[in-house]
Specification:
This protein has four helices and six strands. With about 160 residues, it is an alpha+beta fold. Helix 2 packs antiparallel against helix 4.
Length: about 160
Amino acid sequence: MSRLTHLNERGEANMVDVTDKAISERSARAESAVHMSAEAFELLVTGSNRKGDALSVARIAGIQAAKKTSELIPLCHPLALTKVDVEFELLPEKHCVHIFSYCRLAGRTGVEMEALTAAAVAALTVYDMCKAVDPAMEIGPTRLVEKSGGKRGHWHCDEVTHG
C-alpha cells in the first residue's frame, strides 16, 4: 500500500478528505537560509539597501505566503492559521541570513506546508530585495524542522542547520 495519501481509488491525484479526522492542536517549524556576498550582507545589516528594510518586508511576505499556501501548492487544504511567525538570525561570519518560520492552528490537517512556504517565500524576498548587489546569492537549504499534533504526534529533526 502506498504511503502517498493524495491518490483516489483510481490512482489519480486528489485532495485528501479530512472530514473524519479529529481536530487537534497542530504546529510546524521550518527553516531556510540566504547566503550572500559580504557587500550585500553589510547593506542588509546596516539598513542601507536601496529597496528598504529587507527583513521587515521578508517577514510580512512569509506570513502572507503561509496564509495563501493552498493557492500556491496544489491539493493543500485552505487553513485558518491561528499563528504565523517568521524570524531571522544574522550570521556575519557566513554572510548568511537564517530564516525560521512557525505556524499553528487547531484543525484536521497539519501545517508543514505552510511553515515551509513561509520560510521559502521569506528567503525569496530577501533575495529579491538584495539581488541588485548580489545576483549570485544562494537560497537553502529549506526544510521542515519540527511538527506536532495529529495522528503521528511530535516529530523533530535531529539537527538544525545554520546556513
